[in-house]
Amino acid sequence: MLRTDWTLAEVHALYHQPVLQLVAQASEVHRQHQTTGEVQVCTLLSVKTGGCPEDCAYCPQAARYHTGVQAHKLLPDAEVIAAAQRAKDAGSTRFCMGAAWREVRDNRDFDRVLGMVTEVNNLGLEVCCTLGMLNEYQAERLKQAGLYAYNHNLDTSEDHYSNIITTRTYDDRLDTLEHVRKAGISVCSGGIIGLGETDEDRVKMLHTLATLPAHPESVPVNALVPVEGTPLAEQPRVSVWEMLRMIATARILMPGTMVRLSAGRQEMPVTEQALCFLAGANSIFSGEKLLTTPNPDFDADKEMFALLGLTPRAAFKNHVPEGATVLAAV
Fold it and tell me: I need a labelling partner for 270 at 20 to 30 A (CA). Which of 75, 107, 205, 237 fits?
């Protein structure tokens, strides 16, 4: 039974178990609710990079930081569709397009993104976007265009949030998730660890996600990739044990959710990634970049899948939108 009434004390107790006990519990929950050994392969493309007016302390795309990221306008439609086709050919079944916007505006660029969504959907891929804040009308337009999922991360706990971002509120993020859910779009929302937060902040973020009216269908767990020029450039690398606690606790709290091992995977050897899959992670981003940060490429991930006996998850496994073509993973 899926619960959305977890207490903060319950989440705290789960998270602070001895790590091997926590991983064993999460692995058992995973076996009960998911197909073990099956991992969703996603690809993320930055369709509009840099120049963002927000002040997210971790982000190399914020215009106010000097990180060496070159801003560019929205990519040509043909370039985006070609990238989606390459991702599909390499084995991805979900294609996510990210734009460095604070919020979606009803203009020609948004109209172009809607067209991209339709074209990628026509390829038989689950199409996802992360475009910043949305209102109800914009979420409905994305749904009509064929959007399958929308990513909007909480990033951290509400208590720690103002230490990381001041240009939008925590409630702004929750409002966008509500608009996405109301439009019938799959919700993708997680966070980043390594932002200078405490364990209690991590527990509170997981509690917020697990007590939403419905669990997010996807929860990315990101380890900060420090970028020179950002306020968090000197933060130490997150350990695998911290990642395991987050992934395992998320798996227990949200058994039916795809828990994605996301940013920071480039620095993790296969042995560490294997532990994360054992703890309940069942989704990854594959391809050489996550927006602007390095990421393992398709060939490296195919070798890892073969070594660990992992199987790519088919697109639209649990839900096939009207007019979509089911794409089997390769």
Answer: 205
For the segment 76-134, what is each residue's pLDDT rounded down to a tens digit? 999 999 999 999 988 899 999 998 888 899 999 999 999 999 999 999 999 999 999 99
52 a catalytic residue: yes
- pLDDT tens-place string over residues 274-329: 999 999 999 998 876 555 566 677 888 889 999 999 998 888 876 544 433 334 43
**326 assigned to some structural domain:** no
What's the domain count of the chain?
1
Domain-located, residue 60? yes
**42 annotated ligand binder:** no
| Domain membership of residue 24 as a residue range | 8-308
Of 115, 131, 205, 123, give the one whose Cα is nearest residue 164.
205
Q: Which residues pair with 150 in a beta bridge?
A: 129, 187
Tell me: is residue 260 an annotated ligand-binding position: yes
> Residue 327 falls within a domain, yes or no?
no
Confidence (pTM): 0.90
Strand partners, 85: none
- Is 129 annotated to bind ligand? no
**Considering 181, 260, 265, 313, which one is annotated as catalytic?**
260
Query: Can you give the CATH number for the domain in which 74 is found?
Result: 3.20.20.70
